[in-house]
Design goal:
The structure holds two protein chains of two kinds. Chain A is mostly beta strands. Helices cover 0% and strands 49% of the residues of chain A. The relative contact order of chain A is 0.34. Chain B is mainly β. Classes of the chains: A mainly beta, B mainly beta.
Chain lengths: 113, 113
């Protein structure tokens, strides 16, 4: 079974530039999560989808971050414009609805200079 | 507010037993999960406790006491490959059947030869 795929693995951008991350969850997983993990900290939930609907985006900085999940499968997370404090690893995870185990991708390490 | 507290770092020798504690204070609670994350890697699921008591999976065990808002992960027969960060995560409910996971700050385990 293929795991959660994310791209790119690494990205370096200048502040005020835009960046997009892509995630392909495990087939059949209706729940998709985007987490932000700052170095030395635990993952922080940015947005959670169930199919193509948003379950929670209370911690998503909506003035600069946006996310979508078209057709309830792949998802993209965008930052526009980026700030220095956005430097982090962005993790995508997926799970079956109501399941206790979430499967994480390798993440995208973003560095904003 | 919501908080999950873990020790920042634990060091032990190969073959030893180590316990990583997690105390939580959250608005809702349905269970406690544990994840392992190697440097540069994806978090991977280790265990889940929905009820009080001990769950055992090979060399790893996890314990939960809901009345004390406390849980721990026990790693036995430590191996060098167990050197990683360990996160507890509270499972809380958005709406009926839809759950979210709030992660702790993580414990960095160093296993010495």
């Amino acid at each position: 079974e293929a795991g959660v795929a994310q791209s790119p693995r690494y990205k370096i951008i200048e502040k005020r530039q835009s960046v997009a991350f892509w995630c392909n969850p495990i087939s059949g997983h209706a729940t998709l999560y985007w987490y932000q993990q700052i170095l030395g900290q635990g993952p922080k939930l940015l947005i959670q989808f169930q199919n193509n609907g948003v379950v929670d985006d209370s911690q998503l900085p909506k003035d600069r971050f946006s996310a979508e999940r078209l057709k309830g499968v792949d998802s993209t997370l965008k930052i526009q414009p980026a700030k220095l404090e956005d430097s982090a690893v962005y993790l995508c995870a997926s799970s079956l609805v109501g399941d206790t185990e979430a499967f994480f991708g390798q993440g995208t390490r973003l560095t904003v200079v | 507010g919501q908080s999950l507290e873990q020790p920042s770092e634990v060091t032990a020798v190969e073959g030893a037993i180590v316990q990583i504690n997690c105390t939580y204070q959250t608005s809702g609670f349905y269970g406690l999960s544990w994840y392992q994350q190697h440097d540069g890697g994806a978090p991977t699921f280790l265990s889940y406790n929905g009820l009080d008591g001990l769950e055992e999976t090979g060399r790893f065990s996890s314990f939960l006491s809901r009345s004390d808002s406390y849980g721990y992960l026990l790693l036995q027969e430590l191996q060098m490959k167990d050197s990683a960060s360990y996160f507890c995560a509270v499972r809380d409910e958005f709406t009926s059947g839809t759950y979210k996971y709030i992660f702790g700050t993580g414990t960095r385990l160093k296993v010495l030869a």
